[in-house]
Every structure is written in structure tokens, then in C-alpha cells.
Amino acid sequence: MIYSLLLTLKFILYTNLIKVEYNRISIIITSSLISALILSLIYRSKSKHKSRNSLIFYSVVSILMLGNATYFAHFNNLLSVKLIPQIPQLKTVGENLKILLDMKKLLLITDIPIIIAYRFFTRSKARAKDPIHPLHRSHSNVNLFNVGARPQGFSISSIINFIRRPIVLGVAVIALFAIFNINGTINTIKTQELFTYHLLDIKNTIIKDEKAEADGILTKADIEDLKSRASLKEGNLTGIGKGKNLIVLQVEAFQNFAVGLTYDGQEITPNINKLIEDKSSIYYNNYHQMLGRGNTSDAEFVSQNSLYPSMEEPTYTQYAHNTYYGLPWLLRDNGYNAWVFHGYKADYWNREEAYVNQGFQRFISEKDFTFDDIIGFGLKDEDFFDQSIHYLKELDKKDENPFYAFMITLSSHTPFLMPEEYQTLKIREEHKDTMLGNYLQAIHYTDKEIGRFIESLKKEGLYDDTVIAIYGDHFAVLSTDENEQPIMSDLLGERYDFDSMMNIPLIIHVPGEDIHEINTTLGSQLDFYPTIANIMGYNNEKGLVFGRDLNNTEENYVFPQTYMLKGSVITDTSVLEISRDGIFEHSRAYDRETRKEIDINQFKALSKKAEEEINKGHYILKHDTLKELK
């Protein structure tokens, strides 16, 4: 009874932490009934370890709630068994976990050590009284947490008698929900109730979702459409970078709000701003992240291939051996050498294995750099850029061919804890030790090193004949963080929401060209490959892409699938956020300019289109469609 009561209290806290908005009472009742039933079965079993088993169940459920709440705080989603292969990577995000594990979440497990200590104390006391028969104690000394000793007259009927009430009540409540399905109660339970969600997650992991498979089937018309998006069409800026080298910088956690931001008279990204203001640059300010389960690695995958990433596992892990025809292969087919640079472990996110089929010929990783200092969990950007110059010079001389260098920075990685000597901004008192305050210091440092890197390219004679593209991999500050959201809203002067959070910058610089422009066309990382392919002037005849050339496109949409659920939509003027329970009627839509909520019904057709598009992307990965076409 005590375990059941404590779990009910925890379910109340848990549903608050994972932001259950609809049918919360129904979810709490369902979780409480299921846990009460399992506990009653444990206590009425023939096992000699009822008390221990019930404590194990209680602890596992509590820890699972903590895991879900912590994961939700950063990813706006619940844990899945598909994430088990990523457990070894937890050691690299220790500082992140410290920030996410606040006292509210820790309340889910703080009582477990107390219960264990109490059990140990009472059992020790009992042994001291009767060392020969420690378990034969009088009823006056019954352990409060060991009330499940078998009663006299134990029988099957007594089991049924004991558990009948919770079962009958549970069946009655679930039947009531099913009959009336008040406010989509059943669907809410399936997607947010602890036991139901995880059981269905396990089932869906083992058994394929036939409906999603059917929805994702590609028709000949679909394939022709994706081929058409890939093919080069003569238009604005076509071929202005042809024959030049290409350097692409994927900057860790580079959000668009930092570009052009002046903070108490301090320019946060002066070097990026200078590059944008150059007459040879295009700045895409309505550009968004497109991630799956792999975060940074998925940002790479999407940008290089213009394909939707997996939502089951990181794409580099699940589909490392698929056939691809992304940017590295396209450039290699046109005489380029393609290398990739990252100052961390080669096997992290399975990069070393995945890069081979992505088309990269060499991976310059942690083992190829000399470490003078570390910021966060890897090589600091200063050393990364300085030492990469030597490899770029080697690459430039290789076969006298142009090169493609894809470079991934690291220092501005969450939680943005910069050593004091690198904190050069004066941060307001109210922003000190906040995610925003720490982030401004980190991205300011990275901007400084990007500026130095560009100067090094000029010094080494690599600049004039090299196209430079810079974009962010994903957001820095979560818009659903209750502490950071008001701070960000105050800084921006408007409500900080999903579209602001997912908005990352893209800058493409072609030295010697008079192309200065701020491109406001809506886009995402899916659009990078067709956009840069147009600028480089090479026709993609072998691939399929979901993105579009942002220099020659008018209408475009962004269909997120993580942080916002599949079916969500970002348009030029508005945002549809599908409800966490997956029920369209519970969803929210708002105007991107006024931030006011608008009617969701106008998005039904577009939401369905978003689901279909993402399902087709998943189908391509699951069936290795490019291999079949090849």
C-alpha cells in the first residue's frame, strides 16, 4: 500500500515534468492501477523475496520516470528501447546531465536510499533479537515495508480476492475511456502513460509498423519528383563556384538569434557579421534544423544528402552501410577530393564507419590532432582550425584537383561551460550561470576562431579560390525550458518558440562574386545540398533529394520530426505544433510574426503531407532505395 501510494505521488510529479496537458488525471489513474496490480501480484506470489522484489519494481519504475523526465527536458520526447545502443555515449555528456538533473526530477528517486536503509536497519534489528530464526518474528515487529508475508489459508481464491478490486476497477476505467474516448483519452494513454508507452515502444521495435510502411511506399511519380528536385536547373547563381574548392563549416549549436546580436554594446558574432556584410556573401536567415535521433550527426547526414534522418536510431548507426549519393559523391564524380574534419573520437556517432559510404575519402579526427587544451569534451576550436590548415594545404596539393573539406566544430557544445580565460564578454548579472549567458560566451569564442581561420586561409593562399559555407547544426537554448524560455523571450522581445529555437543561420561566401543578399526563403538543412550543388554548378543525376535550391525556389515548407512531432509544419508565416499526445485537435498553431495563436484546421492537409513526406524518407533508408536505383 505504501509503495502504491508513493508511486501515485510520483506519477503526479512525473506527468508534470513531461508536460502532460490533456487527460492527465486519466494517465495518473491508469499508472497507479497498473503499479498497484503488479505490486499485489508480487506480494501474493510464492516467492520468498516478496519485499525485495517489490522494492526492485518500485526502484525500476522510479528510475524509469527519472530517465524519461531527464530525456524529455532536452529532447522534448520520451526514452525508447531503440536508444539503448547510445548508452555508452552518456559518459561524454556528463556536464549536460548535471544541468538537466534538477531537484524536482531527483525527487523521483531520493526516497529509494532511505527505504533501502530502513529495510536494512529493521532486518538487522530483527536478527539481533532472534539470530537463530530471524524471519520468525511476532506480528508486533512486522516490517512496514514487508507486509506481504503469506497469510493463513493461502489459496488461489485468496489471490483472486486480493487482486480482484484493482483489476475490476482498472478494467472499468479503461472500458469507460474506450467507450467514450473522452478528449482522446486512449491515444493520450498510449503516447504518455508510463507503462503503456514503453510496452508499445517495445512492441513497435520488435514488430514493424505496417501502416507506416504502407504510407511510406514510393511510387514512380514520387521517385521522379525527388529526381527532379535533385537535377540542376539553370537559374540564379548557378555555377558561380564551379571548379573552386569548397569548405563547409558545421558550427556546433549555432543559433540564428546570435547573428547580428549586440549585447550591451558587445557584438556577439562580429566575424560572422563581417562575412555576411561582404559583397560576396549570401545569408539565409529563414533556415532551420532537421534532426532525428542523432542530433549533430543527423545535421551532417541531412545536409550532405538531403534525406530525412531516422527516428529510430542515429542514422549513421542504423544505416551506415546504405548506398548514398550526397555532396561528397557528387563532387568526387566531378574531380574533387573529399575529406572530413572533427576534433573528437572517430567512432563517436559511428562516424568512422559511416563516412565511407557517405563518400568521404579521409577522416581527420582526434587522433590526427595535437591537444594543447580541451574545451568541453574535445579539441578547442582554436587548435582545430590552426592544425586543420596544414591538412588543407596537403589536400589542396593532392592530384592538383579541387577539394571539398567538411569541418565540424566543437567548442560551442552544450552546456557551454567555457574556461574563465575564454570568457571575454561582460554578462549581465541576471544572465550569469544561465544557459543563455554561457552560450553567448561560447559562440563568441567560436566566432573569434572562425575569423582567425578565414584570415589563415587568406595567408596560405587558399581563400580566393574557395567557396565557404557556414551553418549551425542545431539549437542551443531549448524553447520548452521553463527557466530559459522567459530569459530568451525577454532578450528577443517576443515569445521564444519552436520556430525561433530551430532557426539556424546559413552563410555561403563565394570570393570575387558580387552577390550580396539576405535570402529570406524558408528552408532547412534538407535544402543545403541542392542549394550548394547549384552554386557549385554540378548536376545531380544519380541521387534523390527532398530539399530544394533556395536560390531558385519560391514556395517551401519545413516538416520537423523531433522536438516537434511528425505532422508539425513550419511555413513562411505560421507554425503548427502537433500535440504531444498525437491528437490533431489538441495541437497548437501560431502566427510567426504576431506570435498569436491561430486556427489549426487550416493545416490539416499540410500536416498530412508532412507525415507522408517523412514516411517516404524513412522508406528510402529502410529499403536502401538508392542502391536499388543504382
From TrEMBL:
Substrate binds at H413. It is a multi-pass membrane protein. One of its GO terms (molecular function) is metal ion binding. The active site is at T296. It is found in: Cell membrane. Pathway: Cell wall biogenesis; lipoteichoic acid biosynthesis. The keyword Transmembrane applies. It comes from the Bacteria. The keyword Transmembrane helix applies. CDD domains: LTA_synthase (cd16015). The chain crosses the membrane at residues 25-43, 55-73, 103-121, 167-186. InterPro entries: Alkaline_phosphatase_core_sf, LtaS-like, OpgB/LTA_synthase_biosynth, Sulfatase_N. One of its GO terms (cellular component) is plasma membrane. Keywords: Cell membrane, Manganese, Membrane, Metal-binding, Transmembrane, Transmembrane helix. Residues 244-538 form the Sulfatase N-terminal domain. Mn(2+) binds at E252, T296, D473, H474. Belongs to the LTA synthase family. This is LTA synthase family protein. It comes from Paratissierella segnis.
